[in-house]
Every structure is written in C-alpha cells, then in structure tokens.
Design brief:
CATH superfamily of the largest domain: ABC transporter type 1, transmembrane domain
Number of strands: 10
Structural class: alpha/beta
Mean pLDDT: 79
CATH architecture of the largest domain: Up-down Bundle
Distance between the termini: 71 Å
Radius of gyration: 35 Å
CATH topology of the largest domain: ABC transporter transmembrane region fold
Number of domains: 2
CATH class of the largest domain: Mainly Alpha
Number of helices: 22
Helix content: 55-70%
Low-confidence stretches: none
Strand content: 5-15%
Length: 584
C-alpha cells in the first residue's frame, strides 16, 4: 500500500476506533455466517453423492442431510441480521462523526477560506464525498469481509479435499492479484478526478442559481447552459474512463478463472478415473471453485469502491485539516472582553490581502458613545476596518484595543458578543421572523424581539403579515422585500443591546421613508453606544460626531460634516457627488 494510502487508512481508523466493539461483533457474526455456507458443497458432494446416491444408504441419511442444511441456513440468516445491524451502526456512526468534524471546521474556518473557495466544492466534500465513504464502510465493508472469508475458506477446504488439485487451481491467483493491483491504482486516481468534476458541477450550478435573476436579465440562459454542459461533459468523460477500467477488471478475471477451472476439471477427472478421488469429492471441489467466482468478481469491484472511498477520504481530510487557528482561538483560554465605556483605538494598523495593501499605518481612536462615520471611494478599506475590529481578519502590524484591552488577547466569542453588526449584505436564515431576529441573542424572549423590531421600524409590517412573528421568511428571506429584510437585520443586531454598534451600509436597502423612520430609532439607539457607520446616505453621515475619510488605505481627512465641507477636499467631492445622485 502506498504511504499516503496508509496515512489515510490510519486516519480513517481513528473514526472507527470508538465503535470497534460493533466492528468486531459485526465481523465475527459475518465470518460465522460466511463459514456456515461453506459446508453445503461438502454435504452435496460427499454426503449426497458418495453416501446417499452411490452407497445407497437410504432415505434416513437424505432426511438427516436436508434437516442439517435447513438448520445451517437458519443460523446463517439470524447471524446475517445481527452482522448487518452492527456494521450499519458502525458505518452510520463513523459518517456522523466525520460530518460533525466537517461542519465544525467549516464554521470555524476564517473568512478568507470561504471567500477563496467555491461553495459548490465545499458542499460536494461535505455531502458527495462523505456519502462515498458511507457506502464503503456501512455497506461494502460487510461484503468485503464476507467475500474474503468465503475465498479463504474455499482455499482451505479444497486443500483438504485434494492438495495437488488445489495447487493447480490457485496458480491463477497471483495473476489476478497483479491485475487488481494495477487497475486499482488507476481507479483511485480516476475516482479522485470524478469527485473533483462533480464538485465543479455543484459549484457552477450553485453560482448560476444564486444569480438566476442576473442570468435572466441579460438573456444569458444559453451561455450558462453551455457552461454547465461543458462541466457535465468533463464529468462524463472521466466517469467513462473509470467505467472502462472497471469493465475491464471483471471479464479478464473471469476468463482467467474459467481457464483455471477447466484445467481443474480435466485433472480431477483423471484422478477419479485413477481411483485417487471420489466422484462426490470432485463435485464438491468443483462446487467450491465455482464459489470463488463470486468473491473474485466482488473483490474486483470492491477494489474500485474502496479506492474511490480513499480518494474521498483524502478530500474530506484536506478540508478538516484546513487552518485551525480560529477554532483554537475559540477554545483556548484567554481573557473575556469587558466593555464598560466602549473606547476603540486603532494604532499603526497595516493590513494586506493577497499581497495588495489595503490599510497602511492607520491610527485613530473613537471615544465612548461617539458616533463615527467612515466614508471613502469604493475599495478604499472602509469595510476592512470593520472586519479587523470583529477579528474576521488579523492585522499584519499594529494593535486594535477596546477599553485598553488588545482584542487579540481576548476570546473571539466575548469580543463579538459585545458588538452588534449590520453587514452590507442582508442575509436571513430560513425560519420564522422571530427566529431571524432572535438569532442575534440565543435566549431572546418574545418581548425582547418585539422591542428590537420596534426600534428598527419593523414591528408594524411584521404585525400585518398573516402569522406575524411566526411568519416563515423563506430561504435567504425571499418572502420579504429588500427594505423589510434590512430592517429585520437591524433588529437582529439591536436585540442583543450591544455596547458597540457597527452599521456597514446598513440603510442602503431602505427607501427614503423607511430610512427616516429608522434614523429616528437610531437617534435613541446610538445614545450610550460607540457606533461606527459605513454609509453613503447623507442623513447618516451628517449626524455623525466625526467623519473619517479613507483613501488608498489611509486616513485622508477627519472632522465633522461642516469642517470637512469647508476644507473642500475629498469629502467635499464625495458629498456633493452623493448629493447629486440622491437628488436625481
């Protein structure tokens, strides 16, 4: 076995170990059940032919043999039930634990992984690859044990019957082993390619469905269909290459096996004619050889199944082994962030993303309860400030502190628990409106949810819905308008009554009337809270205590609205550019 394969198998065994008792019991019952079936050819050969038909021992012996076979198969089927249960429990448990690790890793992986990896590929690993592993452990493992026990038992029994004849019959085994080994390696490579192509299809299809409105708006159905066809054709070609390899295994092995059987029948017949072998023993011998066809054929097919499972394990373990930094930060013992005033300080902060400088030596402070607006051209680094404060990313240099506590020295959970964030992209999970708002505070009561909805100017439209707060919003909140979704997101941030509030373009999806109502609520909500607002709406910017103007990753200007207008600099240009757009 290849060194990488050994590592994968060893890693997989780590998931099997907690359920080893089920594996042992299932395997033991399976071995007994398989062994029970091995007596039948001996009974039919030596018992039926030699003792009953040729020796004419009578009906009593025949009945005894028949009852023995019935009892044998009864025991075999009872054992088969228990082995199936134990091995199914093993397979389902392993897959459950593996999925849990995959889910945990996906949730704790840093944002840049999710930004740089296609969702379809991630979903393919979490579903398709794990299903392949489940098929191998939960279903094919039992078949593997059964066929191996049958094959080994047959080899032992044919040596007991006639060792010289057995030597002739097993000459084909090394040839079969070489063929299986060669084609097995090829199948594993192809299996990994198949899973990768399947991930490409998932990623492309998910992207098309996510942007279906844009696709239809630009009449791009044919273009996207062509892209999907290309991905589908690539998957087809790799799948057919694998199918050709698999199809080659069984005919070649069967041809070799049949040639070996014909040689055995010829040699065995000469032994019977010479009186060195009974007719019943030859029948039993040939029956046992016939029994090898099933195991050899199944083992040839199972090679492909387990090679595909190993390839899927590699892909899943690649995901599980991705950066564990954030998870470790969640689990390691650090101080809890205690926010009493809410003073924020950025000191000499640098940040680059994929070698592109985003922030360059940024330094500023926000006093407790101060409302800061951050403005600047697109791509200037406004949202990056929020991402660093939330520790979605870590700065390359410099420190960020809240009430004098370096946020890198406190737990991520306590840091984010003190901040209410309304992101630029409004995302709602499927569920009721109550659950969507309560997402911001796990133990929120109905009164708290209603209070937050009122503050966000959402209570009235919620009450008009058929089921009120029990209304199901649908996947990503598709049952609500953009403005309604945005106000639900505002309520979600407010319900936890955070010490620090971050509004990243928070009113961008609201119409003018809704925005005015929300701004009135903000005037109360912002009292006593340190607030960072990233926005282009004039009403939001003008009410800030201070405005930071970001350009090329640096603070170009700082001051209140009137001061910056008088300076006639970048803010002046941005302000009147926005004013012109809003007046259109």
């Amino acid at each position: 076995m290849h060194e990488d394969s050994k590592k994968v198998v060893s890693r997989l065994f780590g998931y099997i170990r907690p359920y080893l008792s089920y594996a042992i019991l299932g395997t033991l019952f399976l071995m007994i059940a398989a062994s029970a079936g091995l007596f039948v050819p001996m009974i039919l050969g030596k018992g039926l032919i030699d003792e009953v038909l040729l020796s004419k021992q009578g009906l009593e012996t025949l009945n005894r043999l028949a009852l023995f076979v019935i009892g044998l198969y009864t025991v075999r089927e009872v054992l088969s039930y228990f082995q199936h249960y134990f091995l199914s429990y093993l397979g389902n448990s392993v897959v459950r634990d593996m999925r849990k690790d995959v889910f945990e890793r996906l949730l704790y992986l840093p944002l840049d992984y999710h930004h740089n990896t296609r969702r379809g590929e991630i979903i393919s690993k979490a579903t398709n690859d794990i299903n392949v592993i489940h098929n191998a452990i939960g279903m094919s493992l039992g078949e593997l044990v059964f066929q191996v026990v049958t094959l080994v038992g047959v080899i032992i029994l044919i040596f007991v019957i006639h060792w010289r004849l057995a030597l002739v019959s097993i000459l084909v085994l090394p040839i079969i082993a070489l063929i299986v080994s060669y084609l097995g390696k090829k199948l594993r490579i192809l299996s990994k390619q198949i899973q990768a192509k399947l991930a490409d299809i998932s990623a492309t299809l998910q992207e098309v469905l996510a942007g279906i409105r844009v696709v239809k708006a630009y009449g791009a159905e044919e273009r996207e269909l062509e892209n999907l066809k290309k991905e589908n054709d690539r998957f087809f070609h790799v799948s057919m290459e694998s199918a050709k390899t698999t199809a080659l295994v069984i005919p070649v092995i069967e041809l070799i096996s049949i040639s070996g059987m014909l040689a055995v029948i010829w040699y065995g017949s000469t032994e019977v004619l010479a009186g060195r072998l009974t007719s019943g023993s030859l029948v039993a011998f040939v029956s046992y050889l016939a029994m090898t066809a099933g195991p050899i054929t199944s083992l040839s097919r199972l090679v492909g199944v387990f090679q595909q499972a190993l390839a899927s394990c590699e892909r899943v373990f690649e995901l599980v082994d991705k950066g564990k930094d954030e998870e470790l930060e969640f689990l390691e013992e650090k101080e809890e962030l205690s926010v009493k005033e809410g003073r924020i300080e950025f000191k000499n902060v640098d940040f680059s993303y994929e070698e592109e400088k985003i922030l360059d030596d940024i330094s500023f402070s926000i006093e407790p309860s101060e409302v800061i607006a951050v403005v600047g051209p697109s791509g200037s680094g406004k949202t990056t400030l929020v991402n660093l404060l939330m520790r979605f990313y870590s700065p390359d240099n410099g420190t960020i502190a809240i009430d004098g506590q370096d946020i890198s020295d406190v737990t991520i959970r306590s840091l984010r628990g003190q901040i209410g964030l309304v992101p630029q992209e409004t995302f709602l999970f499927s569920g009721t409106i109550f659950e969507s708002i309560a997402y911001g505070k796990e133990d929120a009561t109905l009164d708290e949810v209603v209070w937050a909805a009122k503050q966000a100017n959402a209570h009235e439209f919620i009450e008009r819905l058929p089921q009120g707060y029990s209304t199901v919003v649908g996947e990503e909140g598709t049952n609500l308008s953009g403005g309604q979704r945005q106000r639900i997101a505002l309520a979600r941030a407010i319900v936890r009554r955070p010490k620090i509030l971050i509004l990243d373009e928070a009113t961008s999806a609201l119409d003018a009337e809704s925005e005015r109502a929300v701004q009135e609520a903000f005037e109360k909500l912002l009292e006593g809270r340190t607030t960072i607002i990233i926005a282009h709406r004039l009403s939001t910017i003008k009410k800030a205590n201070r405005i930071l103007v970001i350009k090329d990753g640096q603070i170009a200007e700082s001051g209140n609205h009137d001061e910056l207008i008088k300076q006639g600099g970048l803010y002046y240009k941005l302000y009147f550019g926005v004013a012109a757009k809003e007046s259109e």
